[in-house]
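Justification of resources, computational component.

The compute hours requested in this renewal are based largely on the per-chain cost of generating structure records like the one below. Each record pairs the submitted sequence with a full structure-token output. That output is archived, and it is also reused by downstream analysis tasks.
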Amino acid sequence: MKQTDVGTSDVQPPEITGHDTRTDMLRRAVRKTVPLRKAFVQAPRGSAVRHGPLKTFANNGDVRGLRAYLMTVAACSKDNEDGWTTTLDSAVWARMFDTHLGANPQSARTAAWRTLRRLEERKLLTCRRPRGSSMISATLLREDGGGTPYTRPDGRSLEDRFVSLPIAFWKRGFDEKVDAPALAMLLAVAQDKPWSRFPADKAPEWYGWSPDTTQRGLQKLLSLGLVERKEAYDKAPLSPTGFTLVYEYRLIRWMRASRGKNPSVGAA
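The structure output for this chain reads:
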């Protein structure tokens, strides 16, 4: 009888991508949308300074850090055994943040840890890695960057209003296609009412980043099909035409969460 040598199988283990890791993490979190307080983008009206923590990511071109932060928020659920904390091997964090691309395993792990430490320095989370262990724990803090403990936003107060990003944003891979200006403007459009204007010259005052960041971000979002735009006109009696053309924006339909719903944290 012919014998088969099972020790020389040509079967290879699957290649697990960052997209695979993020998708499985979202599945584990059991949620349909990811809530984020508007204070991360912009402080409430009446505040001495309107800028939120988002401005640092936009001004530094830190798309890796911003993607990592949003994914960490998405990963953390109250249903986790340790509350608003996610604990993973550093290799999993590396894949989730795409620090493994073009890097050896140790460099990827180190880059993932440094990314989390950068978010900790901005008082958006705390992270812990026990000595001699490859496990890293990240615990959310409140999105305003004040360093206070995280609570689920419910929208009942001005400081507690939030935006909801659909998990389809990650599942469809759009998180991999945006740059820092586009992701910053995506959150700016999401936190405003539909068909809002985003005059570039107001960006330094409203958000803390440059007019160029606003323009480049909106153009990128339009090219990706994540926002839609319509024309509007303002009276300008002293101009040759008597009016000026302006643009108003809103998220594309599938990116807009249903009004009046609480964030789907740990919900089926």
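The radius of gyration is 21 Å. Confidence is low (pLDDT under 50) at residues 259-268.
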